[in-house]
C-alpha cells in the first residue's frame, strides 16, 4: 500500500511494474536519431567500438550520476544513457517516468576487458547504489529506478552471478534485505533505447557539472578477493 506521503508526491502506482498489454505504445522513430560524440571522452556513444570492446548495461538509479561514475573508469571507452528492460518502443523520458513503459534508467558501458575487468566494473556497481531497495533509490521512487544488470557475454554473466551472490552474503551479515537487482541477458531484457540528447553526459562540465546525483549506497564495501 502506498503511503499518504507517496500519494502527495504523485508516486502512487509508480512502484508496480506495468503489464505489457497496458504499456504505452511508443513510436517507431528513436528519440535520439543522431547521437553526438561523447562530451567527455570524444568517442562515439553508439559504436562501432574498437575491436575487442565489450558492452555491459547497468541500472543503478538516476542514470545521470551512474554514467558520470563510469566514464571516469580507466578502460571504459564509451558510455551512454537510455531505457531498457521494458515494453514501449523508443520511449521518451516523460513516458519512462510515468512507470507505464516498464523500462529502467540504464547506463551503457563499453570497455576494454584487457584494461578493466567485469569484476572491477561490478564492484563499482554494487558499492555505488543500494541494490536492496526494489523500485527506488533513496528519494527517487518508481520502477524506472530499479537496479538491474543486463549482460552480453558469458564472461559477464559469470561475473554478475558470482559478485551478486558474494555481495548479497555480505549485505545479509549487515542486516540488509536480499538483493533485488534484475539479472538478465541483454537479449532477454530487450533493446537499449538511447535517451534524449540532453541526458547524455548530463553531468559533464559542458552541460550540468553541478547537477543532481543520487548515490543511495548501503555503505558496505564489496569484499576484497581472498
TrEMBL record:
Keyword Cell membrane in record: no
Entry keyword annotation includes Oxidoreductase: yes
Peptide methionine sulphoxide reductase MsrA domain residues: 56-213
Tree of life domain: Bacteria
EC number(s) per entry: 1.8.4.11
Active site: 62
Catalytic activity: L-methionyl-[protein] + [thioredoxin]-disulfide + H2O = L-methionyl-(S)-S-oxide-[protein] + [thioredoxin]-dithiol; [thioredoxin]-disulfide + L-methionine + H2O = L-methionine (S)-S-oxide + [thioredoxin]-dithiol
Keywords attached to this entry: Oxidoreductase
Pfam families: PMSR
InterPro entries assigned to the protein according to its UniProt record, in alphabetical order: Met_Sox_Rdtase_MsrA_dom (IPR002569), Met_Sox_Rdtase_MsrA_sf (IPR036509), MsrA_MetSO_reductase (IPR050162)
Function of the protein: Has an important function as a repair enzyme for proteins that have been inactivated by oxidation. Catalyzes the reversible oxidation-reduction of methionine sulfoxide in proteins to methionine.
HAMAP family per record: MsrA
Protein family (similarity comment): Belongs to the MsrA Met sulfoxide reductase family.
Protein name: Peptide methionine sulfoxide reductase MsrA
Record organism: Isoptericola hypogeus
Amino acid at each position: 500500500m502506498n503511503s499518504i506521503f507517496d500519494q502527495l508526491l504523485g508516486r502512487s502506482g509508480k512502484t508496480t511494474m506495468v503489464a505489457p498489454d497496458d504499456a504505452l505504445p511508443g513510436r517507431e522513430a528513436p528519440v535520439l536519431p543522431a547521437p553526438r560524440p561523447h562530451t567527455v571522452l570524444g568517442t562515439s556513444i553508439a559504436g562501432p567500438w574498437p575491436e575487442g570492446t565489450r558492452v555491459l548495461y547497468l541500472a543503478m538509479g538516476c542514470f545521470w550520476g551512474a554514467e558520470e561514475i563510469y566514464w571516469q573508469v580507466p578502460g571504459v571507452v564509451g558510455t551512454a544513457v537510455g531505457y531498457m528492460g521494458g515494453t514501449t518502443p523508443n520511449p521518451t523520458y516523460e513516458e519512462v517516468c510515468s512507470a507505464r513503459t516498464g523500462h529502467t534508467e540504464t547506463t551503457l558501458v563499453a570497455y576494454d576487458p584487457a584494461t578493466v575487468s567485469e569484476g572491477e566494473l561490478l564492484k563499482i556497481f554494487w558499492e555505488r547504489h543500494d541494490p536492496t531497495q526494489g523500485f527506488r533509490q533513496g528519494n527517487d521512487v518508481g520502477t524506472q529506478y530499479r537496479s538491474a544488470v543486463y549482460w552480453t557475454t558469458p564472461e559477464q554473466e559469470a561475473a554478475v552471478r558470482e559478485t551478486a551472490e558474494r555481495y548479497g552474503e555480505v549485505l545479509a551479515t549487515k542486516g540488509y534485505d536480499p538483493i533485488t537487482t534484475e539479472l538478465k541477458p541483454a537479449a532477454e531484457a530487450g533493446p537499449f533505447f538511447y535517451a534524449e540528447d540532453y541526458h547524455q553526459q548530463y553531468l559533464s562540465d559542458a552541460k550540468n557539472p553541478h547537477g543532481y546525483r543520487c548515490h543511495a549506497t548501503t555503505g558496505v564495501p564489496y569484499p576484497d578477493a581472498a
